[in-house]
Prior knowledge:
Elements: H1 29-45, H2 52-72
Amino acid sequence: MKKGDSSPHVDLIAPHVEEKVRIDCLVSREVKEMWDEIVARDREKSNVRYYPAHTFERIVRGEYQVMKWKDVNKVDTKRADT
C-alpha cells in the first residue's frame, strides 16, 4: 500500500503492517452470492473488527497450501476419475 492510498491513521512503517495490494476481478452473480454468504458467516464468528479481505486471504492461503502439498507429494491433478 502506498502512502497516498492509506488512511491517515495507518503507520505504514510499523513492523506489523504488511504491504497491501488491491485485487479487482469480475465474477458471476452466483459466485458473488456465495462470497456474500461466506463473508456473512465469517463476520458472525468474528469477535473483533472484521474485513472481507481477511476471508479472501484465508481462502487463498488454504488453496495455496493444498497446491503446494500436491506439488511436494506429486499428486496428479489432471487424471480423470473414471
